[in-house]
Amino acid sequence: MEQSAQQAQQLDHLSAAPEPPFAAFGMPGLGRPPSPAPPEPRPILELAGEDLEDELDALSDWVDDFFLPVYGAEVTTAAPWCLEWQEHDDVVAWLHALWLAYQQHRDPEAGLSGLFVWHRDFLTHAVAAIRAPGGPLSACMTSPDRPAHRLLAGPPPSVRTEVASKQAADERAESDEPTS
What we know:
Elements: H1 2-15, H2 49-71, H3 89-105, H4 114-130, H5 159-176
Helix pairs in contact: 2-3, 3-4
């Protein structure tokens, strides 16, 4: 009976899936079955409807709870910020890409240097672009009363252009008048 139990145990062991090589060493990617591929990230500006709202909510949480307290620094004309940053599509796109890279580089599979790589290759460049003195937020904090939170208007059209536009409008008005 004992011999029969040993044979059953040996058959169970032999019929089980083989243990991957190097499993005992705990090396990433070695010794465990490949993990399913994560869903492909889509740029936030390609999303719409509820998908966009959900992603923007998650991004806003990361920006407000992590990014700004750690990397926000003070707001100056050399490093502007906008409380309505979600209204700037280019800033949303930059921050979303930065957040996706952060998620990738803080994953254990990125290794011990993952966050250093994120700082060096992503954070520094993105912050420099977003908060540049002439960047997308440069006019936002110069006047809190400016509701549009956009760069200041460019120069008006030249006098010559205005005169030509007025003449064209007058000619159209004359041609539209009924004749008696």
